[in-house]
Write a structure and sequence with these properties.
The protein contains nine helices and 15 strands. The protein has 292 residues and is α+β, with helices and mostly antiparallel strands. It has a single domain, classed as Double-stranded beta-helix (4-Layer Sandwich). The protein binds fe (ii) ion. Residues 108, 112, 114, 261 line the site of fe (ii) ion.
Length: 292
């Protein structure tokens, strides 16, 4: 079966048909995915019953896989290359509403870009649906290239060159979670990112925002907060947003350099949802071209 790219919309989101991700990707398939990712930013592969090893093998074809530095005592999954996007507690039951991990992951319902608080942020995130509730909650994606294109040229000129400080503790505090150890805080210092990025492959410009974004470097705090909030509101208007409907065993990946995303709520005290997350880091050579 040949590989087909089936767009969800003319410019944003596509399904890739004809690939079995439990097997090693050949170079042509890898190139098809890279090209589709640069064009559509969000890709879906249906009915992929991958193991953890197979998911990692897929992700690692796109670059270095991120490894978490967060406290291992909080984690259910022992492999630090996986994020546990689930409501399953370490004892196998469902997380309670007031559990620490629940509060931590609730921050994923804020619009964000994965790992924007790292010096080497995510270039691509991979998420595999292992268990879904009867009515799976959608994951929403904002096309930050389309948002950039829609800004008035005068505002675009004013934004180019601005730099933004991102921190994991900024987004977690917004979600009411502040209980991090001094060691964890030391391990995750803030990162400075450009506010406007140019995609290395497509050449398209996009806004680079996230709930992790705390302030614009060199701008008064009030002005900085207002600007980031205004741009986030602008970029997440419905005309820029695609809502992804999950099916069992979907594996999806997206380009973090030109999208934001957020989780939506579901009845997590009644139903299990288990997704496996990993992220591929931006390569150092590309980061060097961003001039932050
Ligand atoms: Fe995320």
């Amino acid at each position: 079966m040949s590989v087909r790219v089936i767009p969800f919309t003319p410019t944003f989101g596509a399904e890739i048909e004809g690939l079995d991700l439990t097997r090693t990707l050949d170079p042509d398939s890898l190139e098809t995915i890279e090209q589709a990712l640069a064009q559509y930013s969000l890709l879906s592969f249906r009915n992929q019953k991958v193991s953890d090893e197979q998911q990692l093998a897929f992700s690692s074809r796109f670059g270095r896989v991120h490894q978490s530095v967060m406290d291992t005592a909080r984690r259910r999954l022992t492999d630090a290359r996986f994020g546990d996007v689930s409501n399953i507690a370490k004892d196998g039951g469902l997380l309670t509403k007031d559990s620490e991990r629940r509060k931590f992951s609730d921050a994923n319902q804020l619009w964000h870009t994965d790992l924007s608080f790292m010096a080497a942020p995510a270039r691509m995130t991979v998420l595999s649906a292992r268990q879904l509730p009867p009515v799976p909650p959608a994951t929403e994606y904002a096309d930050m290239r389309a948002a950039w294109d829609a800004l008035p040229p005068k505002q675009q000129r004013a934004l180019e060159g601005l730099r933004v400080e991102h921190s994991i503790f900024a987004s977690r505090a917004r979600a009411g979670f502040t209980e991090f150890s001094a060691e964890e805080r030391d391990k995750a210092p803030p990162a400075i990112q450009p506010l406007v990025r140019t995609h290395a492959r497509s050449g398209r410009k996009s806004l680079y925002l996230s709930s992790h974004a705390g302030c614009v470097v060199g701008m008064p705090e009030d002005e900085s907060r207002a600007l980031l909030a205004e741009l986030t509101d602008f970029a997440t208007q419905s005309q820029f947003v695609f809502s992804y409907s999950w099916q069992p065993y979907d594996l999806i990946c997206w380009d973090d350099s030109c999208t934001m995303h957020r989780a939506t709520p579901f009845d997590s005290e009644q139903h299990v949802r288990e997704l496996r997350w990993n992220a591929v880091c931006e390569p150092a050579a590309l980061l060097a071209t961003l001039s932050v």
